[in-house]
Amino acid sequence: MKENDTEEQLRLSDEQLLVLEKPERYIGREVNSVRKNRDEVKLRFCFCFPDVYEIGMSHLGIQILYGLFNSWTDIWCERVYSPWMDADAMLRREQIPLFALESQDPVRDFDFLGFTLQYELCYTNILQVLDLSEIPLMAAQRTDWSMPIVIGGGPCTYNPEPIADFFDLFYIGEGETQYRRLFDLYIEYRVRGASRTEFLRACAQIPGIYVPSLYEIDYHADGTVAAIRTAGEDVPSVVHRDVVTDLTNAYYPLKPVVPFIRTAQDRAVLEILRGCIRGCRFCQAGDIYRPFRERDVEQLKKYAVELLRNTGYEEISLSSLSSSDYSSLNELLDFLIRECDRQKVNISLPSLRIDAFSLDVMGKVQDIKKSSLTFAPEAGSQRLRDVINKGLTTEDILNGARQAFLGGWNRVKLYFMLGLPTDTEEDIRGIAGIAEMLTELYFDTVPKEERHGRTIEIVASTSFFVPKPFTPFQWAAMNTKTQFMDKTHITREAIVAQHNQKHIRYNWHEVDASVLEGVLARGDRRLSGVILRAYRAGCIFDAWSESFYPERWQAAMDAEGLSADFYAHRERPEDEIFPWDMLDAGVSRGFLLREWQRARRGEVTPNCRQACQGCGAARFGTGICPGAGRKEES
């Protein structure tokens, strides 16, 4: 349908928009956004990133599924984001239901409301979106077809239990594979007049679809899970993750939506691979996105040209968990440099490993854009890097940094974690030691006459280790707030004591937010009550420090009779039933347990290219796994 893009069609008037901080967040009409005739489609899907527009618009996953869904003529996918504080207050005050950007129709009128769940501290924003949309917060209250099916996907669905009471469905796996089947099932059941309950039960037969209402949880007296029971023999006891087996030919958005305002990642994005070969034991993404799969380099070249043509961006970024591990990186960069030099476009290379960061690669991109380099040693000592299986030595760090300095870089960001299993004060003080070594290395490597008035700048940042499901550290205890603060003090004290401390800057994460993340990451369904209480106490945008109120969360925990000590700060027995044990991410519990035991012994495990460790991902029959006919290595 060709509609007139007039001001009158906007849900908010000019007067209302002009008092908002960034009215562009609420008007839609962006370049490449999709508008269809609502009367000519069979199903309408509203996609929500439960955070502010600028964050949500930077997420590649939504762009992929938005484009895929809209490529089907009978489906119309639209978008909604969490309204910022000013818009939230206006919608409530003037009783305007939350609306989708493309059509400006109320979200409650859609068939599906889908949330991407990227971060635990966005959970209260889910309730904000439901509330503003006038959709019942609890799934049990949505009993007929008058309200959307609420579905969640993304990394947090690998333990969706703390928010299970708010959702009808969860999609476990990569969205390109089963959504068409889900939509067809919905259309079929609506046409023949089946009930919402019958539809949800039928959804349980689709691979990767978890229907939380069909599972009941029993608890021991000590609060641990005693048993997970299904509501009938037709309900699978385990929901298996579904994955894309042919990444090269999978759908990719060549006309992504281009926002009117600057966003967190304001550039074209080229996804070059999925998965990771490295096996870092703290990294959930490295496990839940297995196996390692690459896109064909010739396909990527075509995609890059199309993306730049269709967006007008002045920068293109390579998206992956470890860009250095892409087997055709040099060939792809050679092509991008020629293309980007012609169009005066910058190239961004995130996710590079310092041990694989060659002078050759750096030399190729330095004339196009030179900014700070980011390396993630994660731990301050070799002993602790072996515990977490980082696969990085001090020599690797120094060699990589030396090449960077010779290539002309003088700003380095270093990322570390505090509170890793078995860490000691010596490990923590090693963070300052690495920063000092790199500073000295710069002065030893770059002659004074070649510095052109510049000097070395090291930014050392520490986050706090949060154990996550489906990692070898899912059994580990998380540090308490006091322990984290003590370790932050040790780090800061050690940096101040360095000879070159004026060249080193230190940043650290918000500790209360990390503890809450730890509680929610490995929590159970009883936390739904805590999240609901926190929301009703005014908690939204908890991921933003200026709007995070830990005391309200603590009051909610106390009111529900629950504690952070139980969920976050205890080491879990090896045989404990986890709240997420009805899900299968593709890596076996046996593999994760072996890695947890090896970590405590400080043993390093070879990466996937060096030797298969039998993690379980070979069952998917694709990528680097043995027997998958891995094209990327031929």
Any chance you could write out the topology, listing elements then pairs?
Blueprint: H1 14-18, E1 43-49, H2 53-56, H3 60-70, E2 75-81, H4 85-93, E3 112-116, H5 123-132, E4 149-153, E5 169-171, H6 179-191, H7 196-203, E6 209-210, E7 215-219, E8 225-230, E9 239-240, E10 268-271, E11 273-274, H8 284-288, E12 293-294, H9 297-311, E13 315-319, H10 329-343, E14 346-348, H11 359-365, E15 373-378, H12 382-387, H13 394-406, E16 411-418, H14 425-445, E17 457-464, H15 481-496, E18 504-508, H16 511-521, H17 527-536, H18 550-559, H19 564-567, E19 583-584, H20 589-601
Concise structural overview:
The protein is α/β, with parallel strands linked by helices. The chain contains 20 helices and 19 strands. Helix 5 links the parallel strand 3 and strand 4.
Describe the structure.
- A 6-stranded mixed sheet has the order 2-1-3-4-5-6.
- 32% of the residues lie in helices and 14% in strands.
- α5 crosses α17, α9 runs parallel beside α10 and α14 runs parallel beside α15.
- With 634 residues, it is an alpha/beta fold.
- The protein folds into 3 domains: 234 residues, 3-Layer(aba) Sandwich (Rossmann fold), CATH 3.40.50; 136 residues, Transcription Regulator spoIIAA (2-Layer Sandwich), CATH 3.30.750.210; 152 residues, no CATH class.
